[in-house]
């Protein structure tokens, strides 16, 4: 990384943006927050579409003294980029340990978060049966994560990683609906991770109040 590298994170108070913010905080990368007003359609303005033609948040912009800025869309690409920049903190150096982190990270991204988002779209499409099926699958997958933390403090082993970032916000979003009496390890993991200062800062980035 060059000396004068700067970062800007464009986003709003949504799970995808909050995960990206947590990754930057946990990676220790200094960045400027650029709040995008989704309710007023700022993400569809010409200026924003020039940054991300898909009109979605989050977006990370990296600027260096020389060369064009690097623009990264897709929350998971931003998380992985932050982890690359802070090698050792969010992704273990050891390739076997890293494979476990990737396995768990993609478990939460594809089997829990993506299913939850799909259920949300079906709610908007007024398809209650489809929505219920996906919500049930999402909960079954999330609750199965109890086994990941039965012998280890974190989702993918002995150290905090991008797998914990992916797991945390989705768990938090359904907190009140989880059968906590059957998930003692998940509860211990949740309380442990929730106390991290960097994670707490990331959670508040787009929700300062
Ligand atoms: N797969 C993308 C999804 C991005 C996305 O759907 N962002 C939502 C907020 S979480 C958004 O920008 N919604 C505004 C819109 O679609 O109009 C990612 O992970 O970054």
UniProtKB/TrEMBL annotation:
PANTHER family: GLUTATHIONE S-TRANSFERASE-RELATED (PTHR44051), HYPOTHETICAL GLUTATHIONE S-TRANSFERASE LIKE PROTEIN (PTHR44051:SF2). Residues 4-90 form the GST N-terminal domain. This is Thiol:disulfide oxidoreductase. It comes from Paraburkholderia terrae. PROSITE patterns: GST_CTER, GST_NTER. Pfam families: GST_C, GST_N_2. InterPro entries: Glutathione-S-Trfase_C-like, Glutathione-S-Trfase_C_sf, Glutathione_S-Trfase, Glutathione_S-Trfase_N, GST_C, Thioredoxin-like_sf. Signal peptide: none annotated. Residues 94-209 form the GST C-terminal domain.
């Amino acid at each position: 990384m060059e000396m004068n590298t700067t970062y800007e994170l464009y986003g709003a108070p949504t799970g995808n943006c909050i995960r990206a913010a947590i990754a930057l905080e946990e990676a220790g990368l200094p960045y400027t927050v650029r709040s995008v007003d989704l309710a007023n359609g700022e993400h569809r303005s010409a200026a924003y579409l020039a940054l991300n033609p898909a009109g979605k948040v989050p977006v990370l912009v990296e600027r260096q003294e020389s060369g064009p800025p690097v623009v990264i869309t897709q929350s998971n690409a931003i998380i992985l980029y932050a982890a690359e920049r802070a090698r050792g903190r969010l992704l273990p150096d050891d390739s076997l340990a890293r494979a476990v982190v990737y396995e768990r990270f993609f478990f939460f991204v594809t089997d829990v978060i993506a299913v939850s988002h799909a259920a949300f779209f079906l709610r908007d499409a007024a398809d209650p049966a489809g929505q219920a099926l996906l919500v049930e699958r999402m909960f079954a997958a999330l609750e199965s994560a109890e086994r990941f933390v039965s012998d280890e403090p974190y989702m993918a082993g002995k150290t905090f990683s991008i797998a914990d970032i992916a797991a945390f916000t989705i768990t938090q979003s359904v907190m009140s609906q989880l059968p906590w009496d059957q998930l003692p390890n998940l509860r211990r993991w949740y309380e442990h991770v929730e106390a991290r200062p960097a994670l707490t800062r990331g959670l508040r980035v787009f929700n300062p109040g």
